[in-house]
Specification:
Layout: H1 4-8, E1 12-18, E2 50-57, E3 71-72, E4 79-80, E5 94-99, H2 113-126, H3 130-137, H4 150-188
Antiparallel strand pairs: 1-2, 2-5, 3-4
Helix pairs in contact: 2-3
């Protein structure tokens, strides 16, 4: 990504994501990448190429000098002057996020939760609501269980295995005794 044009127009540019120490560029309209090609150090002679950047400034409209485009009229081929609100240049500083790959937000590429967090935080930042970023970026502290001695752990494990069986046997005996007492009372009475 080339950020020199934005810097030349007086915009503030800040890099966000960079490539590694061993990087290279391919330029041209059509680029063929051969997966079997062996890369050499000469192919990877550049380092820290920006692949995502932030641009801040007062941006001009594409139509600042020519005016807004005409809109289609009721009849075919007719064009009507645009009569709605038009802003040639932003009144306050705006933000622009540039990412070298437009596929960054596609579902099939958002495998890593950190990538999704980057996209969400970027959207919040562009909307100028940094409070949401602070809330989303909070980490829930991990509270590990305290260490239990092996004897107690084994005792709990066996109690969980045998306990339900013993409880079922006790409930069965209690119900059997209740029926037996009820049947004796019916025979006597």
């Amino acid at each position: 990504m080339d950020t020199t044009l934005a810097q030349g127009k007086g915009f503030e540019v800040e890099g966000l994501l960079y490539t590694s120490e061993l990087s290279g560029r391919r330029t041209g309209y059509t680029i063929y990448m051969d997966p079997m090609q062996r890369m050499t150090r000469n192919d990877l002679s550049e380092k820290h190429i920006p692949i995502a950047a932030i641009v801040k400034g007062n941006f001009k409209s594409y139509f600042a000098e020519s005016g807004p485009p005409k809109k289609p009229g009721d009849e075919e081929g007719e064009e009507v002057e645009y009569d709605g609100p038009f802003t040639a240049e932003a009144e306050k500083e705006n933000r622009l996020l540039l990412v070298g790959d437009g596929n960054i937000a596609l579902d099939r590429y958002v495998q890593d939760p950190r990538q999704l967090l980057f996209i969400q935080n970027a959207a919040d930042w562009l909307l100028q609501s940094e409070d949401l970023i602070a809330i989303r970026s909070k980490q829930i502290p991990i509270k590990p269980l305290r260490e239990v001695p092996d004897v107690i752990r084994n005792l709990i494990k066996w109690a969980n295995r045998i306990g339900p069986v013993i409880a079922a046997i006790i409930v069965g005996i209690v119900l059997w005794q209740i029926r037996r007492i009820r049947n004796k009372a019916l025979m006597v009475g």
